[in-house]
């Protein structure tokens, strides 16, 4: 087979930074006989992502690691083509005289291509973290989690709330909003200046009460309007809301009250309706109405629960009267 090797003078440069070819290597063909040729520009011996990806060579006719500059005067371009009939195998190993620092690179290169068995299958990249060799979001997510875990400090309550929320079968947009709310990543008036969005003096106050600064915990839990909504919802469920919580503890409390652990839908519905009512007040000249918000929460959570299709049907009036009984069906 015939292989073209690009040896960079600066290994830290990216894929497009080839300074030129300076070596041409002919090596002994592997068994079975090679049906084509490898015509690759290689940044270094190791792949671009050495820990997570590797090239899978078959006949060497379609694998490209980087763009190859065309030079009319380059002697290494003459007679080199891709394809099954490009070049005949050369039965000897011929190496130009190498610099001392290049010898180790060439040895590693030959070791890496030594086990390759050529076939008619198309060349491709293989994603190592996935068993099938195909890149998936899940495998990439697990890599990121593995990297971040040593630096994260998560309490048991936060961990339980996260698991409960992501197992919830509500619409994805509502779950994603709940996740951002738990981590204070929603665009409240307190967070907007952090994103370089200035607000006039007085505009950072809570939309509901107009007294405190609009922070996530205040607007969704401690504000008088939000507290009234939670009080009504807890009373509807038959629970006491006489003690103060944080958003994680409220989610964990509701998630543990149903045998089927489905009460997270109600928590998600509450924060979703509170956010929509807040936006309506700001952008649509809406009004703050606790009773209307509570009724919307009941109807919305009932629709989301029906959409799961995992249990027996429950009529709306039954849901209004005994929501936990419906959840346990």
The separation of the N and C termini measures 68 Å
SSE order, one letter for each helix or strand: EEEHEHHHHHHHHHH
The whole-angstrom Rg is 31 Å
Number of strands: 4
Average pLDDT number: 73
- Count of domain modules: 2
Largest β-sheet summary: 2 strands, antiparallel
Number of alpha- plus pi-helical segments: 11
What is the general shape?
elongated
| Proportion of beta-strand residues | under 5%
The percent range for helix content is 25-40%
Unreliable segments of 5+ consecutive residues: 1-50, 63-95
Report the structural category: mainly alpha
GO molecular function: structural constituent of ribosome
Family: Belongs to the bacterial ribosomal protein bL32 family.
Keywords: Mitochondrion, Ribonucleoprotein, Ribosomal protein, Transit peptide
InterPro entries: Mitoribosomal_protein_bL32, Ribosomal_zn-bd, RVT-Znf
Structure explained in plain terms:
Mean pLDDT is 73; it is low at 1-50 and 63-95. This protein has 2 domains: 1-129, no CATH class; 156-327, no CATH class. The strands form 2 sheets. Strands 1-2 form a two-stranded antiparallel ribbon. It has a two-stranded antiparallel ribbon with strand order 3-4. The protein has 329 residues and is mostly helical. It has 11 helices and 4 strands, in the order E-E-E-H-E-H-H-H-H-H-H-H-H-H-H. Helix 3 packs across helix 7 and helix 6 crosses helix 9. Helices cover 39% and strands 5% of the residues. Pfam families: zf-RVT. It is found in: Mitochondrion.
